[in-house]
Design brief:
There is one protein chain. By secondary structure, the protein is an all-alpha fold. 62% of the residues lie in helices and 0% in strands. The chain has helices spanning 14-26, 30-52, 58-72, 101-106, 111-122, 124-133, 138-150, 152-159. The chain is elongated, with a radius of gyration of 24 Å.
């Protein structure tokens, strides 16, 4: 002892310290993680249930499916659904959808678009939470994020 203080600190065992600190580090994010995952599961269920019942907007979904399929095969995005030799760039310029082309190498299905839509939409929920958290309390921020994620505008987007 030096000056009444112990040289050896009372610390938990390394395995205890890691587990408890990891748990403590995730506690603040448990609420928003749960809301985000809940939104993601709901979006995925809704999109695939509608697809199974032929309730998705087949025309738009077909257009983007054909465009990304063409990108996946390193071809120009010709869309037979819109007409013979119709290049999608004549309608809209959105080369960002080419980013999804490698996913078609893994699973060549329109479900890739439904999953991408659900994941990207659910990814907006934590952004809303972080924005509101700087200006409001934790419970209110979670409520606003949940209202955003399960609100009518995003539900209409997923439904479309």
């Amino acid at each position: 002892m030096v000056g009444g203080a112990s040289l050896v600190e009372d610390r938990p065992a390394p395995s205890q310290a890691r587990g408890s600190s990891l748990l403590r580090s995730w506690r603040p994010y448990a609420g928003i993680t749960g809301i985000t995952l809940g939104c993601l599961v709901f979006y995925l269920y809704h999109a695939f249930a509608d697809q199974a019942r032929y309730l998705t907007t087949g025309y738009d979904l077909g257009i983007f499916d054909q465009a990304i399929r063409a990108y996946a095969h390193f071809k120009a995005p010709m869309i037979p659904l819109k007409g013979p030799n119709y290049n999608i760039f004549g309608d809209h310029f959105h080369p960002i959808i080419a980013v999804l082309a490698p996913l078609y190498w893994i699973w060549d299905n329109v479900g890739v678009l439904l999953i991408a839509q659900a994941v990207l939409t659910a990814a907006a929920v934590p952004v809303v939470y972080r924005f509101t958290r700087r200006r409001a309390s934790e419970p209110l921020s979670l409520l606003i994020a949940a209202a955003f994620g399960f609100g009518w505008p995003l539900q209409a987007l997923i439904d479309f």
